[in-house]
């Protein structure tokens, strides 16, 4: 049986999630070239909870494993280890299969590329109606079309837009259609994987506002994946920062930006080019993200960290009090922006 | 001849290195001629970074391509002129233009791999550029290549110079491209989305580098990007483009902090920032028009919250308002905000 | 385009213009524009349509039914074409040794050749697309098996495969196969020889499409693999298949003609263009050249027109060449 949640209102609970990818060359090449198997640890022991109605954001640079987390949470990718439970139903336990089928329609996803997320040969009304038909939510063609029109209006499009094909729409309009499709099955939990990073900024604002409006209206719960700290700050009530497959820090939105704990979070906040930083002088961060196939030992951030010591090189820091950092745990580093460099 | 260009007060004391006047670029398609760039004028002074910002379809990259003479058919420069150091370059024969690129204009693109030949060691590519454009000896060219790699922040340049492009990380590759662009000591560098493909922690390094090099070498930089954050940090002046026109141009503090054009205002309000979290972002309805359907009058009028009758019939020309130049009927010729 | 006006749906929902009909959209497409630009493609298209029309309408437009013995007169045997000195109306292209009108025989032969060609393409296409979809979507062991079989088959010429299939089937069934069974056999033999190219192309496209987000969205609402394959992936991988099908139609016709020419194809009672060439071949030395020449010209013209059309289609659909 699934153990009771630690918090009463936790809607999503992710525990010790892990995902390995075998990125080895084909067997014959390996034998001839005498190479070992290569295993990429895309996600390495990630745990977090999302309360009902909140927006939890996972932020990280490319290769941090944030999209892999998203795909495991919605069930598109089986985890190598660990557990995902949504609304009390385990997404991994084979015994919960029946309950999972019931849950299926309540979890939907919004993808990054609005040009690839819709079948280009289908009309928009058919695209939006597909979940309704698949879950047999409404009977009767007229009733389904009425619901599609309602959904299109909800996301700021006109019901007649359903008669067009996706190519007739701009990127922002397609993202609205994708949101309408996600809501078609009365979903209550939406996983949005970089939903605005393919869009222009003025259109991004429209989509972010729309997502917030819909959340207020339907009490939606969001898992929001992004590389853009400013967008995350705008959207999320709680934020997890990922680096090389691990969560290094989790904090409330305001708190994380005001008093970041982990050196990587501080570095990101200092490095991101931002509009409020006109003409700012700063010490640029050194180094780049290491190859995730061969990550550094101990704390994977140690080669770029100004506070690293021998323990950081040897020992993986445990996740405690919202941060995985020896320097913070030992009190060598106090939360806040001042201590960088 | 086009009407005499209105003089734009040069931002620095010296004459501009790049001067673009009334530039017009057209693309012939089977549905008719599309105007991608319509009457665009700006200057860049020595050592200055001009940010050109706009959403996709605004014409910022086409403007950059026009300056370096890389508009391929069916596109063509249909009007206006481009001067580099006072000399007209928009009507040069292709061979002369080819020499000009690399020698007097350096280029940095979004994907560093498009600028580097994967089969040659990076040192050889830089040395080749140096020797094509200067009369340095092979040995001196190699030393200069090493110096350049050191200057763009590549560790152990005397060793890395013999590496192949694939042996460098994304950020390091873009540094090599910058070294390559600087190799012939050009007067102007065109950087088209130079940080877009890089991770955020690396973007800041590249921006700082571009800015410092422009200043140290007295090179003018035209920085084309969609990222307002990059512009805010790197540019001295910024031109906001919309539907093939410059909507507003001015010093970066003024344009970012106090935009005048309704589009620029909307754009700044639409971008979430780290400084504070607004409850709602300002939003501009709709999206950039396609080239085939640019509205008459001011191209922004269907999306503009302050649209009035004149906007739908008469195209606004850029006029000085304080330290900015703004193409908007809200600001009349005396530079005062109307009604 | 009427459908691309910049709408401002966020604040002003406005009625969308009526979507254009399929025909209107085709006439506005780049494919059609490319077609209008290429005179060769238009000529090939007209010729192909003409050949198909002749094939379909053969029973109604032929001067005689060449296989109805009642209509044959030995008096008319071995007449030369009408422009020769001994030519006689209505035998425009002359007659064979039994008084059979060559023009009618060519029309009927064309009908049979195209029938076999089209069905051969349908069989190989269905088989190839099916196996390609499965290999690309399922991957792993299944993919390895299917693609290795394809690789092995590719090392043999298609005509050899068809000959083997034909030979084995005839050996199993014995000598007394009726005409319809022989027809079916040759179609299957052609189908089995040409499936590999479809399978490889479709597999490649499927591996690209199956990772696109619209397929993931289908998985999220619990659609089964067959549903995703047929509803979502298949319609998006058909572009290259049309090109292959067109070029393969020409190949299938040639293969059938070769088999028939070698005598393992259709019997003389049911002559395709290939059979006509084989039977006409022996009159070549007696000077009755028209019995073999016109079926030969018809075959060459048919294959050339279809090939030109296929080449144009391949170039027009390949974005890299534009």
Task: Report what the structure shows.
Chain A has helices spanning 27-33, 66-74, 97-104, 124-134, 141-154, 171-184, 201-218, 229-235, 253-258, 263-271, 310-314, 326-329, and strands spanning 10-22, 39-51, 55-59, 81-86, 89-90, 107-110, 189-193, 221-226, 238-243, 246-252. By secondary structure, chain A is α/β, with parallel strands linked by helices. Chain A has a domain at 1-106 and 191-196 and 219-275 and 283-341: 3-Layer(aba) Sandwich (Rossmann fold), CATH 3.40.50.300. Chain A is globular and about 70 Å long. In chain B, the strands form 2 sheets. Chain B has an 8-stranded mixed beta sheet with strand order 6-7-8-3-9-10-12-11, sandwiched between helices. In chain B, α3 packs across α4 (138-151), α4 packs across α6 (170-182) and α6 packs parallel to α7. Chain B is of the alpha/beta class. By secondary structure, chain C is mostly helical. Chain C has one domain (38-68, 79-317): MetI-like (MetI-like fold, Orthogonal Bundle), CATH 1.10.3720. In chain C, α6 runs antiparallel to α7 (179-193). The longest helix of chain C is centred in the middle third of the chain and has 37 residues, at 102-138. The interface between A and B is large, with 45 and 48 residues.
- Biggest β-sheet description of chain A: 6 strands, mixed
What name is given to the CATH topology of one domain in chain A?
A: Rossmann fold
Q: Compute the gyration radius of chain B: what is it?
A: 21 Å
Helix content of chain B: 25-40%
Helical/strand content category of chain A: alpha/beta
Could you spell the SSE succession of chain A in H and E letters?
EHEEHEEHEHHHEHEHEEHHHH
Strand content of chain B: 15-25%
Unreliable stretches of chain A, pLDDT < 50, 5 or more residues? 1-6
Q: Provide the β-strand percentage band of chain A.
A: 15-25%
Q: Largest interface, per-chain counts?
A: A-B, 45 and 48 residues
Distance between the terminal alpha carbons of chain A, to the nearest Å? 49 Å
How many helices of chain B? The count is 10
* Broad shape of chain B: globular
Overall structural class of chain B, as computed from helix and strand content, comes to alpha/beta
Strand order of the largest sheet of chain A: 6-7-8-3-9-10
Q: Could you tell me the radius of gyration of chain A in angstroms?
A: 22 Å
Residue-averaged pLDDT of chain B: 86
Query: Helix tally of chain A?
Result: 12
How many beta-strand runs of chain B?
A: 12
Strand order in the sheet with the most strands of chain B: 6-7-8-3-9-10-12-11
Q: Main sheet of chain B?
A: 8 strands, mixed
